[in-house]
Amino acid sequence: MSTARFSKFGFILAAVGSAVGLGNIWKFPYVTGEYGGGAFVLVYLITALFIGVFVLISELLIGKLGRSDAVSMFENLATKNKKFWKLAGFVIVVPLIILSYYSVVIGWILHYIVLSFQFLPSTVEESKNIFMTLLTSDVKTQLFYHTLVFLLVMTIILRGVKDGIEKINKILMPLLAVILSILFIYSISVESFSKAVYFMFNPDFTKLTSTAIIVAIGQAFYTLSLGMGIIITYAASLPKGTNIFKSSLLITIIDTTVALVAGLIIFTLLFDKGAESTKGAGLVFISLPSVFYEFGDMGSILAVLFFVAIAFAGITSAISMLEPTVLYLISRFHYSRKKAAVICSIFFYILGIAALLSNITDYAPMLKIGGKGLFDWLDFVASTILVPLGGILVVVFVGHFMDESEIRKELVPLMGNLLTEIWFLMVRYIIPCALIVVILNETGLLKF
Ligand code: PFF
Q1: Which end of the chain is less packed: N or C, by CB atoms within 10 Å?
Q2: CATH code at 371?
């Protein structure tokens, strides 16, 4: 493949940049709140370690041995049923679908950075009004920021792996670490920090439902950007001699640490002002702004830092969603990077516009199917069905359709015999079954 390769550090940063996103800073804290705190966190940590790391190893393995675009890699590495596996490679369209509305949400965050400089809502009602007005009637603002994200992401991808993806991650990831550290140190100084620690790390197993376990598995997948050809695509540009076992552990540890730190920051601030953790978008866009207000002058600084941190995390994830299809067009159809990047970006941009319009009261009836708007449909289909489905394809592929001896040659020197056997057991049988349960549960076909 002609594309330039990452440096070792650049690869880890890019993979972490993809993994650390809205899923860590926004989704992890609210699902932790919803599913009972400590017990959920414990299950999540176990799933991230056993499922997350093992699937990450699988994706790095495909990229390292395949060295091409994700679709070709499935086709080339399959020892049988090549035609089917070529089709499976089209999971790379999933991140492009996710990117359409992810870009709209990053747009809201950019808008909130600007708002936080001007004022903060003094009550939850005011905060709710501001967010609902943006969401349901302010087409202009949403379109403006969505366009900004589109241009930004496209420009970075246009510059390629080394000068685009690696460079932006080398700038934004350290900045994100600095901002989160500042927010974390501040929250340690707030009295409610101990309450947040107790909430997140003191497991009350009576609160642990089977749904919580299933949600934890889904979250581990989403947060590590697995099952969508993203890590596979990045891994095709792995530098020679990369230890994929150590890299998987490192990526998972950093991603999990960011989620835990973000959770501690958010719960400390919420508990300190006696606020509730609301579900979904409400946590970041409704509860937190009014909590920041309660912190007085310090609140505006906290708000700006917080939204800048999520924006950085979101942008590095967004670029990772664009690269798999861009690389596919380049390597299979010999498109120039420019042409491929522009085509894929226009696709997600237009789908994103339709998604944002589906939340606007005047357009909503036209963009509703079965009582659900397009925005919610895209999120539901992509993150709750297609992502776990992509995960199943990856593990079944490495477990049953790739050359076993070649896999052993890669893994045994890195992990030893016993761990390699455990890995085979997990990817062949346990993880596919767990993911089937996730899909059945999330689609409501089977409720646990
Ligand atoms: N891992 C990202 C996060 O936690 O926000 C989410 C994500 C990245 C989802 C890339 C999908 C994707 F294609």
Answers
A1: C
A2: 1.10.4160
**CA–CA separation, 246 vs 423, rounded Å?**
14
How are beta strands 372-373 and 368-369 bridged, if at all? antiparallel
Asked if the structure places residue 3 within a domain, the reply is no
Domain range holding 206? Answer: 8-442
The pLDDT value given to residue 446: 74
Task: Name residues whose C-beta falls within 8 Å of residue 335's C-beta, 6 or more positions apart in sequence.
Answer: 329, 343
Is 447 part of any domain? Answer: no
Q: What is the pLDDT of residues 323-359, one digit of tens each?
A: 999 999 999 999 999 999 999 999 999 999 999 999 9
CA-nearest residue, atom 10 of ligand 1: 225
**Whose alpha carbon is nearest atom 7 of ligand 1?**
225
**Residue 14 resides in a domain:** yes
Q: What is the 378 CA–ligand 1 centroid distance (Å)?
A: 14
CB 104 within 8 A of CB 374: no
User: What are the pocket residues of ligand 1 if the criterion is a CB atom closer than 6 Å to any ligand atom?
Assistant: 18-19, 21-24, 95, 98, 222-223, 225, 228, 230, 317, 320-321
**pTM here?**
0.94
CB 25 within 8 A of CB 288: no
